[in-house]
Design a protein that fits this description.
The two termini are about 25 Å apart. The longest helix is centred in the N-terminal third of the chain and has 30 residues. The chain has five helices and no strands. It has a single domain, classed as Up-down Bundle (Ferritin). By secondary structure, the protein is mainly alpha-helical. Helices cover about 70% and strands about 0% of the residues. It is elongated.
């Protein structure tokens, strides 16, 4: 059984992950409205990924015999001044989530919850990738501020098939 402090913080993290998913949908809709389909598609995919992260955490709690509460989330921000602002928000969000994930791993370690610590290792690796990817996109949209179609070109050029990560934790409902 996980330590109760870890369970409480993991439940908070579920809310943050669902909140991130909602924020990414709002960003995607913003880019869709601006007729920037590649940026929109990028953030729609990110929204699904964040939702799946929440569902992985739900599944972990279920597997550990804990109550898996689904917390509510704040409404996402929907108005942005330009094409750079949403990516800046997303990068800040990914950096914040990295700190939260590291803190969760620290709680698990501190309390001797080895299963919880091991579970968090995948998320630590994932956050390194997320911050890197969003940092790259931030540099591109900053350079393309006056011509967002250049960011669209970048995403079209750099698009690769998303590989399935066999090391990813299972998600509640079978989503991965």
């Amino acid at each position: 059984m996980p330590e109760s402090r870890f369970v409480a913080k993991l439940t908070e993290q579920i809310a943050y992950e669902f909140g991130a998913s909602q924020q990414y949908i709002a960003i995607a809709v913003h880019y869709d409205d601006e007729t920037l389909p590649r940026l929109a598609a990028f953030f729609y995919r990110q929204a699904i990924e964040e939702r799946n992260h929440a569902m992985m955490m739900v599944q972990y709690l279920l597997d550990a015999g804990e109550k898996a509460a689904i917390p509510g989330v704040e409404a996402p921000r929907t108005d942005f001044a330009d094409t750079v602002e949403p990516v800046a928000l997303a990068l800040d969000q990914e950096r914040r989530v990295s700190s939260q994930i590291n803190a969760l791993a620290g709680i698990a370690r501190e309390t001797g919850d080895y299963a919880g610590e091991q579970f968090m290792q995948w998320f630590i690796k994932e956050q390194v990738e997320e911050v890197s990817s969003m940092s790259d996109l931030m540099r591109v949209v900053e350079r393309a501020r006056e011509n967002p179609l250049l960011a669209e070109e970048y995403l079209a050029r750099e698009a690769t098939a998303e590989a399935v990560d066999a090391t990813a934790p299972g998600a509640a409902g079978g989503a991965v």
